[in-house]
Amino acid sequence: MNYQQVLDEIWQEVASLPPEGEVASYIPELAKVNPNAFGAHLCDVSGGHYAIGESEKKFSIQSISKVFSLTLAISLAGDPIWKRVGVEPSGDPFNSMIQLEFEQGIPRNPLINAGALVICDYLIGQLKDPKADYLRFIQKIAGDDTISYNYSVAASEKQWGHRNAAMANLMKAFGNIHHDIEKVLDLYFHICAIEMSCRQLAKTFLLYTFHGKVPHTGEQLLTLSQAKRLNAIMQTCGFYDEAGEFSFRVGLPGKSGVGGGIAAIHPGEYSVAVWSPRLNPKGNSFLGMKVLELLTTKTGRSIF
Amino acid sequence: MNYQQVLDEIWQEVASLPPEGEVASYIPELAKVNPNAFGAHLCDVSGGHYAIGESEKKFSIQSISKVFSLTLAISLAGDPIWKRVGVEPSGDPFNSMIQLEFEQGIPRNPLINAGALVICDYLIGQLKDPKADYLRFIQKIAGDDTISYNYSVAASEKQWGHRNAAMANLMKAFGNIHHDIEKVLDLYFHICAIEMSCRQLAKTFLLYTFHGKVPHTGEQLLTLSQAKRLNAIMQTCGFYDEAGEFSFRVGLPGKSGVGGGIAAIHPGEYSVAVWSPRLNPKGNSFLGMKVLELLTTKTGRSIF
Amino acid sequence: MNYQQVLDEIWQEVASLPPEGEVASYIPELAKVNPNAFGAHLCDVSGGHYAIGESEKKFSIQSISKVFSLTLAISLAGDPIWKRVGVEPSGDPFNSMIQLEFEQGIPRNPLINAGALVICDYLIGQLKDPKADYLRFIQKIAGDDTISYNYSVAASEKQWGHRNAAMANLMKAFGNIHHDIEKVLDLYFHICAIEMSCRQLAKTFLLYTFHGKVPHTGEQLLTLSQAKRLNAIMQTCGFYDEAGEFSFRVGLPGKSGVGGGIAAIHPGEYSVAVWSPRLNPKGNSFLGMKVLELLTTKTGRSIF
Amino acid sequence: MNYQQVLDEIWQEVASLPPEGEVASYIPELAKVNPNAFGAHLCDVSGGHYAIGESEKKFSIQSISKVFSLTLAISLAGDPIWKRVGVEPSGDPFNSMIQLEFEQGIPRNPLINAGALVICDYLIGQLKDPKADYLRFIQKIAGDDTISYNYSVAASEKQWGHRNAAMANLMKAFGNIHHDIEKVLDLYFHICAIEMSCRQLAKTFLLYTFHGKVPHTGEQLLTLSQAKRLNAIMQTCGFYDEAGEFSFRVGLPGKSGVGGGIAAIHPGEYSVAVWSPRLNPKGNSFLGMKVLELLTTKTGRSIF
């Protein structure tokens, strides 16, 4: 497959589309981004790299980072975390608090905010220096020690993070947060404030393309079963309230962030990252979804 | 009316009842109380004082304190606070978070926890030294400067107050908490940690018996309309999820606390406070309700 | 008290108010009414009758009828019905279905639609000819056999009553409706379609003024305790999501209907009915509430 | 791939498992089935048929039938139905009524009961003789005119279908049911009462394996895009509250029914149906899921 040609064609197609969607503005730091920024990067299993646009420019990966914190937790914990967080789609966008109330503080899955907070709480109990250790973990998978936190974004998230604080407190009331809430939130806001380029993101996602093996070191970080679990969770829970739509249009496991990034994989074939900050009403990158839809259409390979 | 005789008869009746209900135990400090403690005090409008049992012993008045913080807020604000908190019963006990979610951070009334938090937030904006000023306010109405906070209870409330913290954060996310959450919670937990005896409580509630006038100073602290509003709110919202049952059995405006206290008034006739720490399943003092039911039955005077 | 003079003054005051609020239009039959119709009738315990406006004109009493069906059920059942329906305010207007779902098919109180449906179900099990028997019951209390159903309204209610049908079915799924749903709904829609004048309504409500005794026959239809229960329920649950506001402004037990009627009582003193079809946003008669507020202000007698 | 050998191995493995789970008993007709019945049938794209156990015995396919009614609706309507029903997972099992209430009568997807009711409503508007036409439609895809309704099951469903009636009425109140509710429910209860054998079910599901083409007639019943949509919906919504778990363990689009059947497909490779009436706590066939898990493990081919 000539991935570069496919990406070039896609770039040409999406370049002619009128701009649609708005940049996330719930924190000032995110609103500063150029709304028309665009880049994509694809890594295939043969070691090929293919890119278009600003694929080397770093952006705030936001919720995509939850895949990495979950990966770290699974690699440390094995199965026990599934008693504290589910593996099913969350369904209703309006009811994060309501769902927690009725399901007694157990979040539906680890890719929604409440679930990611539980994962942070778990990591705090396992890591000596959680923020530093988490960063090193990503750097290791990516094989790239330039990846870092954007501390302004982390601070901004904290300043506007009252809904996350509400959820953490409610889960604490139900006994599903074990550590100090300030520490849990601090780790969470930093995890969301990781910056990576499309290249770095795609390279890191090769871990999932290779079923849990870090390709450049050969380390089997996750068991095959753990890797399958991660892919299944991304498939059903990775796109806020648009998992069904994404399955239909794209049909790949992946995760999006409100910074406009989407990372996805075709197991055994490639990983891909796209970045375009304008979001559709469901909070997913408008062009990002379009690019991935064209990719699976043009390559003729989705999971369906 | 020979209130002392009525109280004595009531005491005799309830003394023979088998103990029923459990002491509140959600914080260790409250669980330490003697479950069989009992006292009551009635003040009539002629200045008469009538008491039975441990009427001079201080206990944690808990949510009864919300009536005083609301009184202070109303006396400072007049009507503006009703844009930030409603005046209707909250109905469902299970859904404090859910109600806040759907009503966009506006609590149903100022006597539920969420509403009392909004009142605390308001007071922080109005008072120079909120905790000290609040205490002085109660001492002034009561004409008794021995009333004080129990700081162990306040600390204990804070340690176990994650659900309150969750609500404060959610309301902050909706823009209905204006000040720093830690300050709001700190004031709230102190307000709930006021200690008073039945005598002090009954004397303070004379304010509502006298339609907003502090009887021992003659100060008209609330307008007649404000006093009516307060009585109406106590009547419909003062007993958690048992307002209807209390209206039926007792038929007086009042407020209960999980410390086992209940204060109530017969407008223009008397105020009364009862204390017995064993609670019924709805969180109201088991004997407290019984005493008040007997009081209105024996005096033949309820509002119905 | 010169009630006629009071009513005349009130009429003069409200006549000068600009029209406010809209007539209920969820069924075409109700929308046909003259929006500016107005009447009131007061019966005192001495047998006095005082009236203003179109006090003899019949209108659709709608939910006010739920007080009578509850009265009939209580007089037949005594306490057992309280296992199937609560006595507490419903709180949230948006959540009739949600509340039923979470409280397993047990309505909060008998004056909301779900609760009135349970009462209908109960009556079907107790009465030989429920619709006829119910009508005769009202006629007996009122001492007036011209009271009747408006069959067009009943048919119209049925045609648009899918939400009521949804609640009946959900309660049936929870086992709290015992009879055929069609029969329950048919009785319910007829009960809501009773037509009475202000005079007839006020006269019927004397039953509650006299603590359960039918004044013109002397029959003690309800025990004192049952009558107190009914008054308490009206006080806390009689005005949709405006029980607290009504308590504050009016301070009398009562019940309103979307036909624009409100009936209320001052126990031991009088009963009163007002009719004005324009409703406020909470579904209560705009002028009706105003009239009753002026009545308790001018007579200086509310329960607070 | 020697599918017969794979199935034989699976049969041997599951035969040694202790019986687990209970037969659906919400209607008496379903409770009559032999809990230990077991069968499976696989059709590959080359026309091969492979079977184990009671693969020719008919059972109640229940909710699996919703895939066919959706297929018929899509083939008639194209896109318009997506305005009346969503394509996203429903998430919370407890809140079918709540979700409908908040999302104003629009069900989350067409494979939950509420969504299937909307599809029935749509079909009633499109078909001359809905029940007969629906049956003929299935017979045509299956190439088998012995498929039929079990009228006892349909009658039993109706007798116990109050929750479905509640949802239909609520959606009617929101304007999302256009036809008579009795007709909609009647069609719905019949659709759930279709009986098929594993062989018939697998053969019918070849339609989805072949991306919308009926293999034995060559008719392209659905466009490729429509077929992809159907597969995506099955993938994300086909297993009640276990879509994530099924994705992880099996990784194939499919649909289960409380009769103990599961049908699934590997696009372009095979269709498979399993039947074993004992259900896990989420309502999916215990052995059915086990068989499909072993199938994708042994063939080494899931979508992940």
What does this structure look like?
Four copies of one chain form a homotetramer. Chain A is α+β, with helices and mostly antiparallel strands and 304 residues long. Chain A has one domain: DD-peptidase/beta-lactamase superfamily (Beta-lactamase, 3-Layer(aba) Sandwich). Chain A has helices at residues 3-15, 28-31, 65-77, 96-102, 113-126, 130-142, 151-159, 162-173, 181-191, 198-209, 224-237, 243-249, 286-299; strands spanning 39-44, 49-53, 59-60, 148-149, 194-196, 254-256, 261-266, 270-275. Chain A has a five-stranded antiparallel β-sheet with strand order 2-1-8-7-6. In chain A, strands 3-5-4 form a three-stranded antiparallel β-sheet. In chain A, β7 and β8 form a beta hairpin. In chain A, α1 packs across α13. The longest helix of chain A is centred in the middle third of the chain and has 14 residues, at 113-126. Chain A starts with a helix and ends in a 5-residue tail after the last helix. Chains A and D meet through α11 and α12 of A and α11 and α12 of D.
- Tally of contiguous helical segments of chain A: 13
**Strand fraction of chain A:** 5-15%
Unreliable residue stretches of chain A: none
Question: What is the molecular shape of chain A?
Answer: globular
Order of helices and strands of chain A: HHEEEHHHHEHHHEHHHEEEH
Query: So what's the oligomer here?
Result: homotetramer
Query: How much is the average pLDDT of chain A?
Result: 94
Distance between the termini of chain A: 19 Å
> Number of folding domains of chain A?
1
